[in-house]
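Q: Is it fine to ask for two folds in a single conversation?
A: Yes, each is treated on its own. Send the first.
Q: Here.
A: Result:
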Amino acid sequence: MYEYIIGNITDFTEDRLVLETNHIGYSILVPVTTLANMQGVKDKVKIYIHQHVREDEISLYGFGSKEERRLFRDLIGISGIGPKAAMGILSSFTLDQFIGYLNASDEKAISTAPGIGKKTANRLILELKDKYKHHLSTSDGNTGSSATASTAKEAVEALEALAYSYSEALQMVEFVYIDGMELQDVIKKALAVRASYDQ
């Protein structure tokens, strides 16, 4: 069982990287978010590994942090969630975003991940919410940026009423939302950013 591998990245594809150490190249499946952070890095990197064994295949899944790997393992421990679906979730959201959606019981947001319907999203919330309710942000401590507060949710609903799709509205709000903002300010700023983007 691998804990982590330290080496140099020698190749990328859309869903994996090749990590070389001691003249061995390991092909490792990684979330899109991890790939984005690793591209252009020339120094040695540490990738936390989950080894998945099936009858006909042994695969290595890699993550930028132990917390991401823990979430992956918790996800695949849920009935009906395989490695592919778990990687889709980790590629769609940052760790803090996903945990924010769990804590807010936001099945609509979670169901925007590929292969995850509302029924599955509700099962994820049911099985994981309590496990992650005390999670603190691993970056700047501001979990409010994942648009999980009630004000942010109301802003998303208001933008939906203005004919934006749920995923569009969610992205707009997440881009501008800061914990403690007033509802009208969130909506105004989201619309202003969208307007400048559309020009």
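Q: Second one now.
A: Result:
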Amino acid sequence: MVTDRAVEARGPRASRTRAVLAPLAVALAAGAATAFVGLVDPNEPGHYPTCPFLALTGLYCPGCGGLRAVHALVHGDPVTALGLNPFVVVLIPVAVLLWGRWALRSWQGRRFAGKGMHPAYVWTFLGLMIVFWIVRNVPFGEFLAP
């Protein structure tokens, strides 16, 4: 097992390479998942499991339509993606920006363990998600349903 001191003794390049392994692994996993959703159409029945919340309650969760939205984005159709799940479509660039910040901080040797996000942003996100969840399930918010 290689310790942090052993890696640092090899030089800053080895330490930097090790530091960016986690962000790179997340990028590879997200890229593979996106490619899979792009190749395997979620509009075809039987390819993906049904949303458990939708199956139990008959109501849409904040993620319902998200796979189909990602599929539409992969195929260059942002209008359809916005119609399926605007919350997911808006969150994708936010997730990319947060990932970029994490990767940059890792490359610079700075930690990004939970302290990089102000709690107000987290609470705002949760509040918006709950409002979206509720509004898409009431009659006047029907346009937000997938």
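Q: Anything structural to flag on that second result?
A: Two points. Residues 26 and 119 are 23 Å apart (CA to CA). The helical segments are 4-10, 12-19, 21-39, 52-57, 66-74, 78-84, 86-107, 119-135.
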